[in-house]
Amino acid sequence: MLRRCITPAQVRRCLKTLPKTLYSTYERILAEIDKEHIDMVITALKWLVIAERPLTLHELAEAVALGLEPRADFDIDNRLPDLTDIIRVLGSLVAVEVPLTRRFYWLHPEYDSDSDSEFCVNSVCHASDAVTTGNSDSPYYSPIVRLAHFSVREYLMSTLPKPWSTDHFNEADLHDFAAIACLNYIKLIMSHNSMFGDLYYYALSYWFMHAKNCKDHNRANSAKFFTFLSEFRLTAERPLERLLSLHI
């Protein structure tokens, strides 16, 4: 709001209309988001609230491309041509941290840092390069995206009505959402005989953590998990099987 003011008088008028509490501030931010971006914002916030570790910009953008109801028939046209668009839409709800080093091992856990030094060498990365990684072929310098403050998460998890929905974020439901998204994404990448995808290594490493925290009574999802494990054991290649075996 204040950034739009160009005169002292405009600043004073704006200050008088600012919300009095943090929750009111977040409500106002969400209310001002364009309707065409609401689904993208909700999807991004769900991932940022429930992710087991901080997500990179590339990972978050790929997760958002899966949509609010992620299915195996992923539409590549849902991917953002410019990944930084998601930062602009989320605005002050998120904070972006620029990595100073290349952390290949963190993004790709199947590589052993002791035996495969080629992929574990730290390289200096300039902040200006990392911020503009929208169309980069390499996500290893990708900025980390977090909720701007712990109170943003508290607001989203609260029972207060939200501008875009009367439902609040529920932790078990969010784990359901993330677990199914991870499994569908893994199957999608495997169906293309690929080991690459911006969300792939997160999905492989953390799908089980999300599945473990799903609602116990959600039998449909439980059946989906077991079906996936059965299919995976029949089709997985050794590098992938080694990764997934950590959870099976």
Give a structural overview:
The protein has 248 residues and is mainly alpha-helical. The protein folds into three domains: 1-32, no CATH class; 35-157, no CATH class; 171-244, no CATH class. The protein is 50% helix and 4% strand. The protein is built from twelve helices and three strands, in the order αααβααβααβααααα. The protein has helices at residues 8-17, 22-31, 38-50, 57-66, 85-90, 104-107, 127-131, 150-157, 171-191, 200-212, 219-235, 238-244, and strands at 55-56, 94-97, 144-147. Strands 1-3-2 form a three-stranded antiparallel beta sheet. The chain is globular. Mean pLDDT is 73; it is low at 103-137 and 234-240.
What's the quick description here?
Helices cover 50% and strands 4% of the residues. The chain has helices at residues 8-17, 22-31, 38-50, 57-66, 85-90, 104-107, 127-131, 150-157, 171-191, 200-212, 219-235, 238-244, and strands at residues 55-56, 94-97, 144-147.
Cα separation of the termini:
49 Å
The secondary-structure element order is HHHEHHEHHEHHHHH
pLDDT averaged over residues: 73
Number of strands: 3
Helix content: 40-55%
| Tally of individual helices | 12
Structural class category: mainly alpha
Low-confidence runs (pLDDT<50, min 5 residues)?
103-137, 234-240
- Determine Rg (CA atoms, Å): 20 Å
